[in-house]
Predict the 3D structure of the following.
Amino acid sequence: MALPEMTKYGYSKRLSAGCIAASGTLASLNLPSILMVVYAIITEQSVGVLLIPGLVANISDILLGLQLSPYLYLASFAFVYLIPGMLIDPIAIMVMTLPVMFPILTGAGFDPIWLGVIAIKLAEISLITPPVGLNVYVVRSASPIPLTLEDVFAGIMPFLFLDILTLGLLIAFPQIVLFLPSLMF
């Protein structure tokens, strides 16, 4: 729907397709977010608290016993989310990874609410990351104007860069996520 309008007003079809594919990830942190609810159920966290920023145990113990840097655990978590996330639905990734990764990451000192936002942001990024990026295929398939995958992937690059920058800021400054929830209690 938006693609013909955007191209009619002079936007390149690549940028237009990229914008549409990237906007498909924004709903994950907005109310109501199915990914946030699934995260809350799997990790036994408050759905209400998780949604505010958007206005196995043996394996965990063994891995925590390695006493690695918390950010190395977080980098591993990102890798586990991004690689399969390019190929598999985010809910499936959460169901497969959170029972193991959540106790490791909270045991390493990360706040569970902050971690929820990071997990959702990683899921969003995986939906637009080449070589697969499921949202890219959806936009190409649903486009009423001819688009190649190369067009959509080229158009998504500025948005992918901004998503990665946002992720970096959320990791560097956890209070961006935690400020409002901290006012609740």
